[in-house]
Amino acid sequence: MEMGNQSFVTEFVLTGLSKDPVVQVILFVLFLFIYLTSLMGNLLIITVTQMDSCLHTPMYFFLSNLSFLDITYTSIIVPKMLALFLSTRKTISYIGCMTQVYIYLFLGETECLLLVVMAYDRYVAICNPLRYAVIMSKMACFKMAGISWMCGLVISLTDIVITLKLPFCGPNQIDHFFCEIPVLLKLACADILLNEVVMVAGGSFLLLIPLTLILISYFRIISTILRMQSVESRHRAFSTCGSHLIVVSIFYGTAMYMYMRPRSKNSASDKAFSVFYTIITPMINPLIYSLRNKDVKRAIKKTLGKTF
Fold it and tell me: Is residue 48 included in any domain, yes or no?
């Protein structure tokens, strides 16, 4: 596409994770396995929380939301990446790239807020158990989940709007395996200072504030747990929070590395971190919640009709 004397790209080339054909086949098999495991694990979580009436509680309602988000999150990245491993023409259209950027941002920002809501749920359950049923009513849970999804949808518009305003007039080679804003900005043939400021400021706002709220919730939770007289009660309370803390640590740690720092020149490092929080984390989330949770393990055994 041309405008005046300047041409603009209509598609991008994704370099992926390797240029070696043999390595690409190995990576295809590896990431196909990870993707299918992620889909099955998250679908299993959604299924058992719907089928088992004992899991019809706020905590598992939010966990189902997280599992649905993880399925969508990986599905906008991995299928295209798998296709590129086996293709000689490793391109993605401009519209496809921008669509991937927006949906990816929307889901990532929604997950930030869902993790805060899940922390609040644990705070109410442990610090204010007598009012838990009233505070975390079904309507309140729907509202909190709905607000998380709506905020993610709206906030992500800011990043995509200012990205769409950037001219991309070549080169069109993205040194990554999907369209992610930090690497996409490097290709713009215009001043990207505003975009970088918005990215770092937005990342700080959407990561630091939710993380601070989570840490405050857990400070109050731990203080309450330590005052419990029964060792069994303390152990039970810690076990219900441990899975969530592990997920929060992995998600926020890798996301903060990518979005709360200036432009990086280490593409290999960026790719590694991106693989971890876009592909690996959605796979291990169901494992973390099921392996550390007796209720989920019981529900899975009941649903599948056999003992593991």
Answer: yes
Sign of the CA dihedral with 251 first, then 255, 178, and 268 last: negative
Token couple for 69: 């988000």
205 located within any domain: yes
C-alpha distances in Å from residue 299, one per residue of 53, 59, 243, 269 = 9, 15, 17, 39
Which of 185, 117, 122 lies closest to 146 in space, CA to CA?
117
The answer to whether residue 4 sits within a structural domain is no
Q: Is residue 5 part of a domain?
A: no
> What burial class does residue 226 get, using C-beta atoms within 10 Å of its C-beta: 0-12 exposed, 13-18 middle, 19+ buried?
exposed
Query: At 47, which CATH number?
Result: 1.20.1070.10
Domain count, the chain: 1
pLDDT tens profile 73-129: 899 999 999 999 988 888 999 999 999 999 988 998 899 899 999 999 999 998 998
| Spatial distance between the Cα atoms of 212 and 204, rounded to a whole number of angstroms | 11
Predicted TM-score (pTM) of this structure: 0.86
